[in-house]
Amino acid sequence: MTAVDAGERTGAAALTATGVRYAIGGRTVLDGVDVSAAPGETVGLVGPNGSGKTTFLRCVYGTVRPSAGRVELDGVDAAGLTVRQRARRIAVVAQDAGVAAGLTVREVTAMGRGPHKRFWEQDGPDDLRRVERALTEVDAGHLADRAFTELSGGERQRVLIARALVQDPGLLALDEPTNHLDVRHQLEILSLVRRLGTTNVLVLHDLNLAAAYCDRLHVLDGGRVVASGTPAEVVTAGLLAEVYGVPARVEPHPVTGAPHVLYLPLP
Fold first, then answer.
1. pLDDT band at residue 196, thresholds of 50, 70 and 90?
2. Are the CB atoms for 200 and 193 separated by under 8 Å?
3. Which domain does 190 fall in, by range?
4. Does 125 fall in a domain?
5. DSSP 8-class letter at 45
6. Which CATH number goes with the domain that contains 183?
7. Mean pLDDT of 199-222
8. How many domains does the chain have?
9. Pick from 235, 233, 250, 199: which is nearest to 46 by CA?
């Protein structure tokens, strides 16, 4: 993957979520969640299945409205932003992203320019250049003329990340961005995300990837944040036993020094 020309990117956004609560059908999914991300910081949301990670991310990018609490972007209540205003600052790579059939990879990627244009505007030279650059960044340039629906799961994921990049976001929200990717592309995508200059909020299941690529982690369990801090502060054998119910050893990675989880067999 090529280096990113961060000078053409929008300034990184500051995210502050305070007391975010979300309930549906009498069930509380989020219960007073506080999460922050400083400009340019990469923050990971980790925790067991059903802990509220994806729902919180949806509250951030606006497909779910919190029952209580506040989500601020650069000090502004995100609830007061229009859909277009929010889309100009937040780009999303969701697990369930749908794309219309019949579109090529280049056309799918170009959809990310929508928030910056009037609905009747055609793609100009700058738009096309941004699309080609983003596809190259995610190692998908050779797929540009392929039908999106013909791609493998990993190839589709890379194209969706390219679409987010051309949106020129200040905040990048990614729900399991390494899902379906092989090991090489998992590492490349997370390395790329860190180099973008954006503020990044990622939902991750792999704790070793989260510890290696995130500046800070928020651990959710039962809709609440039960631990926050640097990977070294958060990823501990005690937390794994308490939150995940698994025995493990946590040791410094021999090269990076980041916490590295060694899972032990269940008795």
1. confident
2. yes
3. 6-102+169-263
4. no
5. E
6. 3.40.50.300
7. 96
8. 1
9. 235
Answer for the pair 29, 59: CB distance below 8 angstroms, yes or no.
no
User: Rounded distance, CA 235 to CA 232, Å?
Assistant: 6
Instruction: Report the mean per-residue pLDDT for the chain.
Output: 90
Q: Which amino acid is at 61?
A: Y
Q: What are phi and psi of 73, to 5 degrees?
A: -120, 115
Flag whether 141 is in a domain: no
59 part of a folded domain: yes
Q: List, as one string, the DSSP characters of 201-258.
A: EEE-S-HHHHHHH-SEEEEEETTEEEEEE-HHHH--HHHIIIII---EEEEE-TTT--
Closest Cα to residue 160, out of 138, 188, 129, 130?
138
Walk across the sheet containing 68-73 and list its strands: 27-37, 15-24, 68-73, 76-77
User: pTM for the whole thing?
Assistant: 0.88
Residue 4: the pLDDT is: 44
Tokens of 57: 């991310």
- What pLDDT does 209 receive? 97
CA distances from 216 to 39, 68, 201 (A): 13, 25, 10
For residue 87, how many other CB atoms are within 10 A of its CB? Answer: 19
**Phi, psi (rounded to 5 degrees) for 24:** -150, 135
Residue 181 placed within a domain: yes
